[in-house]
């Protein structure tokens, strides 16, 4: 994968209490061209979200004191971050990890062990969907602004029509 220009590099927040796992993911994802921000737990992750713009969050399902689903819910509850894609990493040994992750609002669940290439493909898919959603939201905002402008123009034309009708009646009388 070609490394994007620094300003265009997607910013990925990786959250894991396991330092070696965190370092490995950060190094490999960084080599794929992502700007990596790391956090060792859910609370630190929320702090990072407030510090700088994040394009995607990858977090462990099992963490303390705030686990992956709790982190996902906290992200979804904050309007500024509600649309940031969240992917949770779970062990196959955990009962119903996907159910808990999706119920909390995660977009994807990656079960360990996973192929790194598949992880990167899933990240790209989530980032592409987020870009499409952002473009759609921008188009909707632009349409709302145009509709509001047209409503104002229509109101002004209506006022002018009433004024002209009143003037016509005054002249006729």
Strand order of the largest sheet: 2-1-3-4-5
Q: What is the alpha-carbon Rg in Å?
A: 24 Å
| Percentage of residues in helical conformation | 55-70%
Count of separate DSSP helical elements: 5
The total domain count is 1
Strand content: 15-25%
Shape: elongated
User: What's the average pLDDT?
Assistant: 89
Question: In total, how many beta strands?
Answer: 5
Helix and strand element order = EHEHEHEHEH
Question: What's the CATH superfamily, by name?
Answer: Response regulator
Indicate the CATH class.
Alpha Beta
Q: What is the rounded distance between the termini? A: 80 Å
What is the CATH topology classification name? Answer: Rossmann fold
Largest sheet: 5 strands, parallel
Protein name: Response regulatory domain-containing protein
InterPro entries: CheY-like_superfamily, Sig_transdc_resp-reg_receiver, WalR-like
Pfam families: Response_reg
Keywords: DNA-binding, Phosphoprotein, Transcription, Transcription regulation, Two-component regulatory system
Question: What would you say this structure looks like, in words?
Answer:
With 173 residues, this protein is of the alpha/beta class. It has one domain: Rossmann fold (3-Layer(aba) Sandwich), CATH 3.40.50. It is built from 5 helices and 5 strands; from the N terminus they run βαβαβαβαβα. It has a 5-stranded parallel β-sheet with strand order 2-1-3-4-5, with helices on both faces. α2 runs parallel beside α3 (68-77). It is elongated. The termini are far apart. Residues 1-6 have low confidence and may be disordered. Keywords: DNA-binding, Phosphoprotein, Transcription, Transcription regulation, Two-component regulatory system. It comes from Sphingomonas astaxanthinifaciens DSM 22298.
